[in-house]
Every structure is written in C-alpha cells, then in structure tokens.
Give the backbone structure.
Amino acid sequence: MARLILSMDGLVLKEIPLDKERMSIGRKAHNDIQIDNLAISGEHAAIVTILNDSFLEDLDSTNGTLVNGQRITKHALKNNDVIELVKYRLKYIADDVAGAQPGGEALRAARPAAPPQVRPPTFAEAQVTTPRPAPAPASMPQASIRIASGPLEGKVLELVKALTSLGKPGVQVAVVARRTEGVFLTHVEGGGYPTVNGVPIGSEPHPLKSGDMLEIAGVSMEVSIVP
C-alpha cells in the first residue's frame, strides 16, 4: 500500500497509509490528513489512489502545492516524490518496502516486495481507445460503454480491464473500475465532475448500473452491465 511520510524541518511526524481512494489534505478537521497550520488552506489538496497509481491535485489553495520544488495543479505521483505544503513535507512511498527517516533510522523492517501487478492506465492513455482483447475475470461483471455523441458516436468499448480511463487529459478524466461488487465511476482530473444521468458524481466512487448515461469531457456514453 502506498503511503506518505509527513515531516517538518527534517523531523518525521508520522506515516500515513493511502488506504482510501480519495484522501483530502487541509487545515480543517474533516480532512483525512489534517495539518493544523494557518498557512495551510482549509481544503488544500487531495490524493486519488487507484490500484498502484496516485494522483495529487491542488484544490485552489492560497499558498499552493509543490512537488519536488515545482508548483503543480495536478500531478501523477512517483515513488519518492516530495509534496511541499509551506514548511511541511509529505514524501510519497509507492511500494511496501520500508523507507528511512532522516539520520538513517528505518521506519520499519524491510518486507519482501509484493508481486508485480498490472499497471492501470495513466493520464496519457486517458482517451477512448479500442482495448486489446482479453477475457474478463470470472469474478467481475461484464461491462461495456456505447459512445452516444461526438465523432465516435455508436462505437462500443468493451471494458475488459479492471480499470479503463475515459475523457480528455487536461479537460476531464474519469476511471471506470470493474470490481467483484460492481462497476464504479471515479473522477480523476478536471475542474468539474462527470455526470451520471445528468447528476455530478462528486469526489467518491459512484456505482453504475446498466442503462446509466454518463457525460465525460462533453461526450455522452451509455453503460451496459451483465452481472
């Protein structure tokens, strides 16, 4: 499981596992990661984690969010990236091998590396494309998406992967996840949320059912699901 190492002025404060699909960072108490400092905005930033990938987004904070010294709006996190929120540092650890605190003291004993997993689509792949044929896992529902508007109208996209990215990078990107308990739509990138049957889905994963109409990056799509 990916995690963050929170530190200030070189002193490690705590380790935070990224155990939710979306974790908010900010000064207010309702945030998943609360940093009680007036220089931190009430809702400063958020991290969306999908399988092995985590995406950081600045939530129009007053003092901004930096990664490795560069100010960002949205950023796909890589192992050992350092998120900077004023004088606080959040080091992103992508795998399950123990990191080390300043001075070389290990946070925990190293554990055997987890077996490799199939990597989900990245932002660069977040356009509707024809997937390569592959059998759907028996434990997951069969699903497809029919494009209902735009130049690809009528095209049917079979959801053969666990995760399929849809939309346009820099405009709006969402991910459709097939799980044993159903099919879910999650917002990843963009100023507005995708809609399901005309209603914005918000920041949490939204369950889909057969016949639902989606709109992502201005394109309408119809969902078909076979349990």
The radius of gyration is 19 Å.
